[in-house]
Fold each of these.
Amino acid sequence: MKLFILFCITCFCFLSFSDGRSDPNSVGRVRAVNLGGWIVTEGWIKPSLFDGIINNDFLDGTALQFKSGKVGKYLSTEAGGGTITLAPIASSWETFRLWRIDETTFNLRDCIGRFVGMNTIGNGKDIIAEIGRPGATETFQILRNPNDLNRVRIKAPNGFYLQVKMEEIVSADYEGNGGWGDDDDDPSVFTVTIIGKLQGEFQVTNGYGPHFASQVMKEHWSTFIVEEDFKFIKENGLNAVRIPVGWWIASDPFPPKPYVPGSLHVLDNAFSWAEKYGIYIIIDLHAALGSQNGAEHSSSRDGSQEWGQTDDNIQQTVDVIKFLSSRYANSSSFLAMELMNEPLSPGVSLDILTKYYKAGYDAVRKYSETAYVVLSNRLGPADPTELFRFANGLNRSTVDVHYYPYYNNALSSFTVDEYVEYIYKNQSEQVKQLTTSNGPPILVGEWTAEWQLTNTSKEDYKRYAAAQTEVFGRASFGWAYWTLKNANIHWSLEWMIKNGYIKL
Ligand SMILES: *[C@@H]1O[C@H](CO)[C@@H](O)[C@H](O)[C@H]1NC(C)=O
Ligand SMILES: *[C@@H]1O[C@H](CO)[C@@H](O)[C@H](O)[C@H]1NC(C)=O
Ligand SMILES: *[C@@H]1O[C@H](CO)[C@@H](O)[C@H](O)[C@H]1NC(C)=O
Ligand SMILES: *[C@@H]1O[C@H](CO)[C@@H](O)[C@H](O)[C@H]1NC(C)=O
């Protein structure tokens, strides 16, 4: 059994080099926009995509706590040996992540990766947390009180409901009485609290299920970003797009479930539009098999970060890079291949990452001598120059760093002036250090003009955005805004340009 790093909901182009590297692309520095939320789903970018899912707050990766009203305690796996008990206070041991089988049927995973299941030895009514992949004896139904959806009963694989016995014991031996009655007095009723959720590609496709996902995703892909957007990008002073893709694209039209076919066709369209309007493309492997950071944007099923734990897994990722490089190598728009977005430290070690990056680099070079190979820095505790020495041994490589003052807690009490000063002083110092330390060229592959301030004016945003375009404009490879379209208006470069907040 692998170890998983669970529940880490944590929340880094181009081209005139003065360092002597030859540059057959004469585009100058990259001024790009990310096409986020297009072929790799992120619910916060387009919440409506999830509207049609039944029980859409119980998706894969939703983190739940179950409190018994009868004894006022929470289901817990903290006791030794996988025993399930009840604990007075809810924390990680009292939190369960869903694997959704269908809208009412689930597996429940605890904080160290075990699944709740029937104890197959003994009296046939004990439930435990156990290691291994879930099967029939780990499959539960969660039935919600229609008048109060947070009140639930949990039906075990033996056909009986869980119920609380005495203060700390729970067993699957309640037959049910059909009604809900006084929930607080019923030992089989639990109140659920949702303490975390994921809304990525896995969640949306598995949530709609095999009958509807394909149709919903096709509709989304063909309307969210269209040819007209590439024209808009060209006309507004940008010269490139960074396109997040998921590992399943390489097995189109037969991606493994729950993914649905068609994302490859979408990327093909992007290339033909990019060629038509003279725009460069950075393909960005945003979601690697098993998830490199446990986030929804890397299509993690339940918050686990499992990429890189087996050689197989790494080889399959290299194969995805090979597939994409060979397919687009001869396109005049193929500027760069980003081998993986935001691997998270320490779960992805530097050693494993550079081994993969070397194999990925070779895969790109097999088909293209000219494409740049983008190496994303690790998130989490990591030195921003840790890849420099490695990258210097490669031809036409660049290191991607992401700058989001929005997520910097140290700025939580900042004023508008302080934010702007932070960009001109601190952020610019970081960009300067990275561009002058004899490393590869630097791409600021993600940034955005949003902050934690509320009630700020258009002029405030204009200053903040201008500061960032100026400072990130000094990055030797260039920058890419996150993202073109977003329900949160300031994260949408399209909205920012159309409304006069950003002018390039
Ligand atoms: C690219 O074009 C060249 C010349 O036409 C051809 O030999 C090569 O096989 C093509 N590469 C790919 C990956 O299609
Ligand atoms: C870099 O390019 C040079 C000249 O073409 C070549 O000899 C060398 O092997 C290349 N290095 C790598 C790591 O691809
Ligand atoms: C900005 O840089 C200054 C000078 O290096 C430092 O004292 C300060 O703590 C930095 N501010 C933040 C929020 O990182
Ligand atoms: C928002 O800004 C306006 C104009 O500066 C001011 O009158 C108002 O009091 C502010 N509201 C809050 C909640 O700070």
Note: The pocket of 2-acetamido-2-deoxy-beta-D-glucopyranose (ligand 3) is lined by residues 410-411, 422, 425-426 (CB under 6 Å).
Amino acid sequence: MSFVTGLKCVFCGARYPARTVMTCPKCGVTGILDVEYDYAAVKRRLTRRALAARPDPGQWRWRELLPIGERARLPALAVGGSPLRPAAALARRLGLGTLLLKDDGRNPSASLKDRASAVGAVKAVEAHRRVIACASTGNAASSLAGMAAAMGLKAIIFVPERAPEPKLAQLLIFGATVLRVRGGYDQAWELCQRACERWGWYNRNCAVNPYLVEGKKTVSLEIGEQLGWEVPDWVAVSVGDGCTIAGTWKGFRELRLLGLTRRTPKLLGVQAEGAAPVTAAFRSGEPLRPVEPRTMADSIAVGVPRNWKKAVDAVRESGGTMINVSDEEIREAMRATGALAGVFAEPAAAAGVAGLARAAREGVVPRRAVTLAVITGNGLKDTRSALEAAPRPIEVPPDLDAVAAVVER
Ligand SMILES: *Cc1c(COP(=O)(O)O)cnc(C)c1O
């Protein structure tokens, strides 16, 4: 770990050497740690010119900003390097000036979680572990299973009862051992936590393992580079546990710290109305109060977000805000993003777009702003929700006159 200087607790500020510490021993499981780097040294190495000379567009081009050794074995999968494209027609429909989509559904297992799982798998190998485990609403699990397969590790996954079938199919095909917990995500999470302690498995849970957020931040590093070292005015990210938005902010902060960009964007943290404890904590300024999550967006249906503090701090530091959207707004955003931009987003990913739409309506995001929504997962991961959001097909007999009756109507 050439550029990592240590770990710092986000609650009490205590510092630890970067070995296998998972959470702050003083604060317990809430004492989430943050990885610190020797940025002066990174700055000398990670220049615009050095980056331009690296042909691989994937996330390892940022290795000086990742907590991995210079000679670490990496998974032979294309992680990161996802496309960033303008979506003009969608912007017009939503009342936004400029809208860009960062399509992270185009990762190996079709979600942004691959960025984190890749780092997790590399760290597990580095720590000489054979088994890596996580609890997940679906995407962290399927991505971990894929990365473990690519690295020759065994994956043990705790999933809640209601994980969408395509995500379950992915992790079974990737050869993971799947424990379907009769209960919700929060119970699966607890169980996994205790199992890791008991059997010494490498814990991929993002909120506990400080290294995973580091993978997630590469999405922002890429955005800066793809925009020619500029950043949007607003970046929308959906929030469940809070790791994704925390990572997103860290990436933008580092870009500015290294002098690669001059500004940072405002973050728009988006939660589903039925699972919005982070928004509540952001607005009240008080510690998080758990809720019973109710939303179709399974990836952000989190009642006890583990990384709420990092998320709230990130949004506040960025000068942005948190917003909630209804399931109907999420469905509308799925239809609009698909039909007007050709991007198929799963509900939690469409939530970011829905959040920008609402922020535009409420005047939170001005029309002249350059906005970006991170499409955090692909719509094929939850086809049932997609079919609920989509219009019905038109039934016709195999007869051209019947087709004519429809198309000429
Ligand atoms: C995990 C996930 C999120 C939210 O990330 P958190 O770190 O839980 O806040 C959003 N969208 C998708 C598709 C995800 O898989």
Note: The chain has a mean pLDDT of 94.
